[in-house]
Amino acid sequence: MIKNYFKLIRISHWVKNLFVFVPLVFSKNLSDPSTFVQVLLAAVTFSIASSIVYIVNDIADVENDRAHPIKKTRPIASGAISVRMAVISAAILLLELAVLLSTFNKEFIYIVIGYTLLNFLYSFRLKKIVIVDIMSIATGFMLRIIGGALVIDVYISNWLILTTLFLSLFLAIMKRKSEIELNVHDSESRKVLKDYTAEFINQLSAISAAGIIICYALYSVSERTIEFFDTEYLVFTTVFVIFGVFRYIFLVYSQNRGESTIEILITDIPTIINALLYILAVIFIIY
Questions:
Q1: Does residue 125 sit in the same domain as residue 193?
Q2: Same-domain pairing of 114 and 203
Q3: In whole angstroms, what is the distance from residue 273 CA to residue 226 CA?
Q4: Which domain covers residue 275, as residue numbers?
Q5: pTM
Q6: Residues near 152 by Cβ (< 8 Å), separated by ≥ 6?
Q7: pLDDT, position 125
């Protein structure tokens, strides 16, 4: 039963909120315990907010999920958790969210409220509009980055924000490609996929992948970055970004594994090794 509730709140998807830590790392505050705890609480806040949206979305889409080849195993769609218990779970999480938000500055509170409203709009309307659907996902990741900066009152490079934008677009596009391969467009919940053709998806993936690499490379060699970190070596971490993008493209196009980004991040050994090497390299160079 506990496992079903973990699936209900998508606890594995909480890893997406690690984006909140980006401003902490790149502002050279990672070694400050009090600041780290503050950002950790911010990440938990985003996680709870997203879980509330997931539950409400699952309740609203229960019939459509039952027709989906993968989503039919979700707790509500499969009958493992009743709608009544799901509503109670959402109410408890909402109370926890209100308590947590009361401990933050108003700028961060506005970001979380905006993030939550955006996700509700996405769940009930925006996901049905071609291009707007993937742009909404990208905006959610950008709000995480901005929230992470506002909660500790630090500057975040525009290049990093743009890198996040293209990265989240890339992941959303790859997910759409996998859904097309699975013929999910036959499901009521994914009618928008009929507007995405294979050629269109290929063009979007190429543009977004190039955007990630170019924006990150420009961030690593920008004058402000070199001056702030007092080193030019951050440019060498670009190789890990390039490998990560290429590896993900390979997994989606060759093995059709783009349906779940989280699954790739926690099961694909080359991706895990590359991510760990990137993190170690960034920390070593910056700190």
A1: no
A2: no
A3: 27
A4: 157-287
A5: 0.86
A6: 23, 24, 27, 29, 35, 38, 39
A7: 87
